[in-house]
């Protein structure tokens, strides 16, 4: 990580901390150890000072072996430090221009070991790193780490104070219908709803011996006003932002009151919106047109991954934003495994494993840890910018950014190839072919979208030279370009 032949080019940051350590092991080293372990990991340099411009210089440690022994003695004392996550190779002496310094590589702690704290008290002794400083974790951050450290998945909690009437019956009926289509003749098909929900993990036997919802069941099939009783910050938000002059042109929120507001229904409402503009190549299988492409599959995986890995006790909720050139999926919580491991595939550690089970029963989501690699693979095959994951703290949040490109950008102005039209655009083309011309209000009614969304679709078709427009404002008419 550090080029010790050019130490002066470095300054303290989110993953590098320098300490003179001329009087022994500084007490503040343990706060930094905790902060690095609970954030992204980092390097502690002992025998390094900051100059006036904040750059580093080595100041030499005369007896480094003595300090290293003192360090190991303290880190292995559980009254001082909750856990030692270092190995022998993580601490060593480094020569820098004739000066001896000590290098301590602190990895990011695996979730079963978090929070890493000091002083024997996890509430007052848990730290995180922000910029070039360490800070005391808030109670909310501490509780989030404790939840993630648990062996049992968050969503397996049995909600003994709730009954099965918290479930939205239409959501359950729709799910069962999808499962019948995905897995015809399944042994659970003949069960009544309560026993079926018990089998998939939406219901469990409580302390009183009766059936109660699990957290997963409540999130998947509950009504929004019931869900927020347990998950106070629960919020699902899908936005389309095609017009820079407005905050959004189309939106789905869980608290609107005109639909269930649960995860199951949100998934399909949001997915249908996400894929409305996806170009579908004309392909037949057994005489039937195939509308499912690797891009559709990647978007399904990204949306399901966002919902399954969200910490629903965390703040700010799940937010999916679709723009002209980018789609972002953002959820509360932090990575439970290293991102590089997730990108490599084969490792699955979902925050809500029961939710994932429910999705996989209707053929959505990857249990084998191959979901994220498949997203990266599809974007690579498209020749698009590599997907980007970012992790934020205060509060914990993960965002996946997917850059997208219009097929027209790659294909030029070839409008004779109708296979490049989205399903919505094809509906518009057929309508105008029959009627000659039409207004945005008519197209909005045809497609079942808002007028602003209809105008965005029509404007894109004009820019693609599929349509042409005449008139202005409310009198503007659209027709097929000759």
UniProtKB/TrEMBL annotation:
Listed Pfam families: HATPase_c_4, SLFN_AlbA_2
Residue stretches making up the Schlafen AlbA-2 domain: 12-137
Gene3D superfamilies associated with the record: 3.30.565.60, Schlafen, AAA domain, Winged helix-like DNA-binding domain superfamily/Winged helix DNA-binding domain
Name assigned to this protein: DNA binding domain-containing protein
Originating organism: Acutalibacter muris
């Amino acid at each position: 990580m550090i080029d010790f032949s050019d130490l002066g080019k470095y300054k303290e940051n989110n993953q590098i901390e320098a300490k003179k350590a001329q009087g022994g092991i500084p007490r503040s080293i343990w706060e930094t150890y905790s902060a690095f372990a609970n954030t992204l990991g980092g390097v502690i340099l002992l025998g390094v000072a900051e100059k006036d411009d904040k750059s580093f210089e080595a100041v030499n440690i005369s007896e480094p072996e003595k300090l290293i022994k003192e360090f190991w003695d303290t880190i292995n004392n559980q009254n001082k430090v909750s856990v030692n996550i270092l190995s022998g190779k993580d601490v060593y002496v480094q020569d820098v221009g004739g000066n001896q310094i000590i290098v301590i590589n602190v990895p990011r702690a695996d979730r079963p070991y978090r929070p890493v704290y000091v002083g024997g008290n996890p509430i007052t002794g848990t730290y995180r790193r922000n910029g070039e400083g360490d800070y005391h974790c808030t109670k909310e951050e501490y509780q989030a780490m404790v939840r993630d450290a648990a062996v049992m998945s968050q969503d397996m909690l049995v909600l003994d104070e709730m009954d099965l009437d918290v479930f939205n019956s239409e959501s359950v009926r729709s799910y069962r219908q999808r499962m019948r289509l995905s897995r015809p003749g399944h042994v659970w098909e003949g069960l009544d709803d309560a026993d079926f929900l018990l089998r998939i993990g939406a219901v469990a036997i409580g302390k009183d011996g009766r059936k109660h919802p699990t957290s997963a069941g409540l999130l998947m099939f509950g009504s929004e006003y019931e869900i927020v009783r347990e998950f106070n910050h629960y919020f699902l938000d899908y936005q389309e932002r095609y017009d820079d002059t407005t905050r959004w042109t189309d939106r789905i929120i869980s608290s609107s009151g005109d639909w269930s507001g649960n995860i199951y229904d949100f998934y399909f409402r949001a997915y249908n919106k996400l894929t409305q503009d996806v170009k579908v190549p004309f392909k037949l299988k057994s005489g039937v047109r195939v509308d499912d492409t690797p891009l559709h599959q990647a978007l399904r995986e990204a949306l399901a991954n966002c919902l399954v890995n969200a910490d629903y006790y965390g703040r700010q909720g799940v937010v999916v934003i679709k723009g002209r050139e980018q789609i972002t999926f953002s959820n509360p919580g932090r990575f439970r495994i290293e991102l590089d491991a997730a990108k490599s595939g084969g490792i699955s550690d979902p925050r809500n494993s029961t939710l994932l089970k429910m999705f996989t029963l209707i053929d959505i989501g990857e249990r084998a840890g191959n979901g994220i690699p498949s997203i990266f693979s599809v974007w690579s095959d498209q020749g698009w910018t590599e997907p980007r994951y970012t992790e934020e703290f205060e509060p914990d949040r993960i965002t996946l950014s997917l850059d997208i490109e219009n097929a027209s950008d790659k294909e030029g102005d070839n409008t004779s190839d109708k296979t490049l039209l989205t399903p919505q655009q094809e509906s518009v083309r057929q309508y105008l072919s029959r009627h000659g011309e039409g207004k945005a209000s008519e197209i909005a009614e045809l497609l079942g979208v808002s007028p602003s969304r209809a105008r965005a679709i029509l404007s894109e078709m004009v820019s693609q030279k599929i349509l042409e427009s005449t008139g202005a404002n409310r009198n503007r008419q659209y027709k097929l370009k000759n």
